[in-house]
## 1
Amino acid sequence: MAGLLDGKVGIVTGGGSGIGREVALRMAGEGAKVVVSDVVDDHGAETVSMIEAAGGSAAFVHADVAVQSEVEAMVKFAVDTYGALHLAVNNAGIGGPAAVTGEYPVDGWDKVISINLSGVFLGMRAELPAMVASGSGSIVNISSILGFVGFEQSCAYVAAKHGVIGLTQNAALEYGTQNIRVNSVHPGFIDTPLVAQAGMEKGSDLWDFIAAKHAMNRWGKPEEVAEVVIWLLSDKASFVTGSQYVVDGGYLAQ
Ligand code: NAP
């Protein structure tokens, strides 16, 4: 059966875990050749093994999205390995420290902005020329519900995720006539290792409190986000660009 992404080559940053891993698996399942990149080589290689075990094509490249030379090498690797670049999911991100704005650690701010905001800029800066050369492109930048509203003790994350909307819209305006679409996806709280690292444990009061902020009174799953990302990457979304797609179980409906 034909896949939605047959013949396409794509990159997923932060593809070794959580949402990025699920997106990479689904991209390959829809026929794309996938370059999985991450800072944790073992995790990225594990995603590649999972794709290959399911009969798909994938390769791993180490890339810290905050480092321009590594991001450029990642895109070059994709083009050298598979001959083109059509798809990119700029997904890598971190939570960062928890503190009110008046006490927020400046080094924590710098780190979150460098990965969650500059990482998306550096990714698109390298990906867009490669997509122009390839004749078409679709980019999905992973923002958050916190790209629209605040969340106490998270000023850097919230500012970065708001910034991703502007970056996405700008690139969409610039590249729309070159057959390249650029959109952002905004998950609610999703059960991934990122939130475990932030100290939120399943079954805790905090976990339940956060679940209750969603109309569906639960956390989301990575595959529920991947579903929307795949659609945006595919030609089914051929007239969708510069848009924000919320996947949040009703968090923002309140
Ligand atoms: P995750 O499971 O922690 O996966 C993120 C991956 O990115 C990890 O493998 C991580 O490596 C990697 N990474 C971290 N810093 C990197 C860097 N500088 N360069 C390249 N890779 C890097 O997190 P996730 O929950 O799937 O999050 C994916 C994206 O969704 C993020 O942008 C996040 O902000 C966004 N998001 C998540 C949620 C949620 O509730 N989970 C909600 C809204 C938006 P390490 O293992 O070393 O960290």
## 2
Amino acid sequence: MSAVIRLQGVRKTYGQGAVAQEVLHGIDLTLARGEFAALIGPSGSGKSTLLNLLGLLDRPSAGEVFLLERPTSEMEEAERTRLRGEALGFVFQFHHLLAAFSALENVLLPSLARNGGRLTPTLRVEAEALLASVGLKPEQWRRKPAELSGGQQQRVAIARALFHRPVLLLADEPTGNLDTQTADQVFALFRRFNEERGLTVLVVTHDPRLAARTDRIIELVDGWILADRSAAPHHPAP
Ligand code: ADP
Ligand code: MG
């Protein structure tokens, strides 16, 4: 299995001089294509910092982040942005949807903005199909975020993150604001895209019950990987 992303000796220090604080202490981590993994650990252990480095939203203080086997830490920001836009999708605890735009526009706009493209009928149909596949009914496609429930808003955010067909989805506590049943549905969606598209998923969660629904649990404590265990195979062997 080829590595989608690989961290090698990654350290991260915030601040300088007397206030410098190293929050990641030399992380080695590889995610292979098609993995569905959870990142768990106490608050302040460095999970979001790690996700930001994996997502090329920040640069390590030492070590290297290889995305699709390419070293990224020395890349120009424009190249990192391009790579991020092609290969990565993000979902956060708060959906960050654009309040003035419909669900459909929220799915379409980032890709259009990135590619400088025009809205074609094909793109619109693809976005509608994706909204349908995350469980939004046609009458909801035209609604603004405020006219949707929290669970529906997060489904739109997931559709937005997946519209450009990234290889890796990074989700930072995506169910932190959702009730248990809706959180289950979000994880079921991740599982479905993981199976249907071979999407690699890394999801930060506080909920051991949700983490147990993934195939691999990576536990971060005080900036160290304390445990990294694979669950029993999701599918029984033939
Ligand atoms: P988690 O997501 O596991 O709660 P974070 O990665 O957000 O942990 O934070 C890890 C540590 O790094 C914490 O001590 C936090 O205060 C610190 N930290 C996070 N972001 C910054 C920042 N931008 N500047 C300074 N310190 C930060
Ligand atoms: Mg966090």
